[in-house]
Input
Amino acid sequence: MELKTLTYIVVFSTFGLYFAIAWWARAASTSDFYVAGGGVGPVANGMAIGADWMSAASFISMAGLIAFLGYGGSVFLMGWTGGYVLLAMLLAPYLRKHGKFTVPEFIGDRYYSKTARVVAVVCLIIASLTYVIGQMKGVGVAFSRFMEVRYDIGLGIGMAVVWVYAVMGGMKGITYTQIAQYCVLIFAYTVPAVFISLQLTGNPIPQIGLGSTMADGSGMYLLDKLDLIVTDLGLQEYTTSKLGNGINMFAYTLSLMIGTAGLPHVIMRFFTVPSVKAARASAGYALVFIALLYTVAPAVGAMARLNLMNTIEPAPGQNLVYDERPQWFKDWEKTGLLQFEDKNGDGKIQYTADDTTNEMVKVDRDIMVLANPAIANLPNWVIALVAAGGLAAALSTAAGLLLAISSSISHDLMKGVFVPNLTEQKELLASRIIMTLSILVAGYLGLNPPGFAAGTVALAFGLAASSIFPALMMGIFSRTVSDKAAIAGMCAGIGVTMLYVFQHKGIMFIPGTSFMGGMEQDWFFGISPNAFGAVGALVNFSVAFLMVKLTGPAPDEIQHLVANLRIPSGAKAAAHEH
Amino acid sequence: MQSEHESYWRENVRLITVCMIIWFTVSYGFGLLLVEPLNNIRLGGYKLGFWFAQQGSIYVFVALIFYYSHAMNKLDKKYNVHEEGGDE
Output
């Protein structure tokens, strides 16, 4: 069957599945809408967290980043998984014990302050909104590449799909569609990887294949071969090339770990399980499901890089003739993500590290996963599957983020602060209306990405790491941190992080407004702006403890609240207690 | 009662500290700080430091969470602070 038809069939049957699940899991109460009624089992919740967490960036971009960064790409692998250890031990069980609907609600209760709650809402909205723009772009891109519809139409279809199941089902609908989306995305990710690993090394398990010898009879290890090819071209060795200096890699990994543990749309998922015990276990299951993709990704990256190099230069000195290039090469040239310029006029493709002789003038990192099945000559149904997987990854994350945004507005700002006498039915209606508006805003921003969309990763992780994570952790592990200390800490943490990001990347990422220059030599200890969240977190902790010393500890009843948080017994399903 | 709860919390914090030391060692230690010496050792086609950075640390993270979860369930029972009917 023709690829395009096949892709349409696969993608629209997955959409049909999501709709069916959404209809079956409609939300009837605010408890259904915010925390899926509080009755999701740990394995199911782990799977939903997996889909919630793994976004278009994990599915499409990460393996490509690793393919070109080599060892330096490890910061993403460790950073985006190690955060779950922090979640499981430092946050999730205690937040579940507290038993409320949202992250800002916990901060408001623990720090007995509406101001703290509003500060948390602001951090949450900025972090989640910047993140959701990336997902919307991912949806648009997947549609336009695979199904040849216009970017804006693809984006519109994606918005409509999310609207149906997120607005109808709230957290309940999102949870069960995320479980289905996890299955789609992990299947779509691992199937091509298994095929390619089998082709290259004869071992079907990519994690083992990456450490095996080549199946071409040379007896050479795959990674050694890749090291040899890239160093021959004058590039840095694949298995040792660093990302910046050692301090930068350290800070980058730490920022991503703390940021992961502080992202509200992930934390919120722990409110849906029935007990403290289930919250701990579901963090473990979540990481199992995430690790399935994250341990395959380095194999996908390295093998795709090897396949790309081998296609262009099958043997040293025997470069591919441009007119004989394969079909996938032509397809990706059309999208502008792959560009060739015959600098020496010999009609052959030279791919080198030197800008004056390199003729592959553009190789977009994102195509490594998307073009991978075609490069390896895999059947069409595998390519169609990758399209459905990419969409599942983007849609599931977008839904989780949209719920985080709308619940923080309807539950924290409206019910919690400005309209306290809102009835449950009205609150449910309000959250549906706000969710609809959030989808429209996210769609608009996906269509007209503001200048700062390029820096979304820096901002979302930086904010979560420097404000939300420290506030939550101190709230549990210290009895004495007071309202003033927490607010000062959050503001100082965000302040320092934003200042650093803006001074190097421009105010709100507007080019030319950076007042320190974006160059590496200006970086503090060589730490890149993306990696600065760890420093922001440190500032947050220090300022908060200093404030406790200066202004005194939290009152007795809050110290009792903290003591109670630490004990699992007496946990109830998350509910209204107003 | 109060002091019982406090020793429960102290044991929990001790357990977390041990887990965090392992967490730090496999990722920041083996994967980043000690990567160069470890790369002299091979694990099949993998250099060992590279393997910890791209594979090993993640496996250890998974094992750590399940270990912690299991140990805490026992601790909850020991101090009788487990949830009512919390055996699901």
